[in-house]
Amino acid sequence: MKTKYSAKSTESPVLTDMFSRTISYLRLSLTDRCNLRCIYCVTEEEHEGHLVKLSHDELLTYEELLRVVRVAVAMGITKLRLTGGEPLVRHNVMHFISSLGGIDGLDDIRITTNGVLLEKYAHDLVSAGVTKVNVSLDTLQAKRFFEITGVDCFTQVWKGIEQALAAGFSPVKLNMVVMRGINDDELAEFARLSRDLPLQVRFIEFMPIGNSSRWHKDTYMSSDEIMERIGQFGELLPLEKKNADGPAKVFKLGANAKGAVGFISPISHHFCDRCNRLRLTSEGRLRSCLLHDEEIDLRKVLRSGGSDGQIRQTLLDAIENKPKGHQLAQKLREEGGDCHGRMSRIGG
Questions:
Q1: What is the pTM of this model?
Q2: Which of 118, 167, 208, 215 is deepest in the core (most CB within 10 A)?
Q3: Domains and their CATH numbers in the chain
């Protein structure tokens, strides 16, 4: 069975992969650079400051990225997420995001950020057309924030979250990677945030990604256990899932909660059968699954004078190669993952 691509003039184009999944979501890693050095993203050597980064020429230019997005949207991509590294550290990023907002058919632009620069850019992101913002935040304790990220700027990140709320993002999503023995004692504090503020606090299973990931089976905590522990602090009332929603199972922590809590289970209850994503890494490689290392070099197509038709075919090739699912749970029992690329370049 081949990848299906319908682009009749009387209907919206639809991309369907070999397993009948509609592919409508593209994640762009704008840079591998970041202003934090989180323990689950960088190696121990990199955490000490020895980071090897892509050169400027190795990154796709904004013009190249815009060209790819235009072709992808014409094929049926409707949702775009900007990631990194930290996307907001790239020079002149707001001009690029504003240009994205002018692409017909692209009506859902989202960004994942560590929040360090969010206080500065929150209102500009709204003006540029960004519809949703996710903030990666693994602790509410300033000392522990430094231990996890290598940078002492928790207060700055929290001010960014407040500015995102003030700018009108609703909800603001907080992504907490739960690590047993590191931050799992803060589950209650994170969950209670959703009662008082219009935040969607999402608890994410710790995944082994990267050649030197510090993942260990003793650090991993399943979403079932996380839900059980949070359920001790209030009734979890399930919310209706919307078409544009991601893989999180979302609940209100009590009927009067202003926000919600979500649980993302890439290992214990994977959502491969519903995956609608395609990734473009910061070095211009198409990756159809986060947890499989097979990639297609789109940068080479772009820089060898490739036509829009060749870009389109490369996107189709990547979708056709999208696996049915990962075998991560089984591989983890053997103490090994299936993703050896660097998270800062893949874009999560």
A1: 0.90
A2: 118
A3: 1-113+274-348 (3.20.20.70), 114-205+223-264 (3.20.20.70)
